[in-house]
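Render this sequence as a predicted structure.
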Amino acid sequence: MQALVIAAHGSHLNAGSSTPTFEHADTIRAAGAFDEVRESFWKEEPPFREVLRTVDADEVHVVPLFISEGYFTEQVIPREFRLEGWDPEQWDSDGTSASSTTLPASDTGQTVHYCGPVGTHDAMSDVIVQRAESVTDDPDVGEGFGLAVVGHGTERNENSAKAIEYHAQEIGERGRFDEVKALFMDEDPEIDDVTEYFESEDIVVVPLFIADGYHTEEDIPEDMGLTDDYRTGYDVPTEVDGHRIWYSGAVGTEPLMADVVLERAADAGADVTDAIEQVKAETGSAHASSD
């Protein structure tokens, strides 16, 4: 038997925070890749600390539904899952290249394949592009468009910015969009000045967040000038300073995110090749499978 546990943050304040986690888990269940699929959360039920006790399988793949490597993926999740012998060095990562490591869970005895976060996997670049396609309703969007990949950014964790910059660079090298920039909420270059960084008349803005919430629904739209008050709403696109802003909302709500979870598990040895192809077909992705 092979099992999957998706580890996400959740929220006591935002009831919709966990919705993408449950939706991606349902997509993976429907694909039949695992005998068991469980969701777990830091701020909701079931909690990280207890979820392995609900899994019958002796072998479990744990995939963090987080954007960056850092406090939660390197300290909180390994501690709460009681991964014996864990050390971040086992990922051999520079902040964007975490792969997987296999460790015993000390209280249950299960073998856990602990994977890097979804946000730094190469397949996340495809999800960002898919998000741009979804918000513009154009499967060929790119020519004549700029793309802003937006992250929170923080001086407390340098890896927070690394993931954003990594995907912006990777997508930029594809040559699909006229311009690709990494922008941030709390460090330079800031999303408030989005129109100053692009010559393109049309700009797609994709926040690299797992779920929509305070930042993606309130802060970013107001900071970009889409609206003075998020409660009154805004058009997509909205014209700002002579540019049309196509704001997509959180990338983590894109259905193709389920593929990134599967890709992480596959990299750790899970037999999910057929499920990956099925999920890509069902979520409308034309991209080839990541190796």
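Summary. Helices lie at 19-31, 48-51, 71-80, 123-136, 159-174, 214-224, 257-267, 273-282. Residues 3-120+254-282 form a domain with the Rossmann fold fold (CATH 3.40.50.1400).
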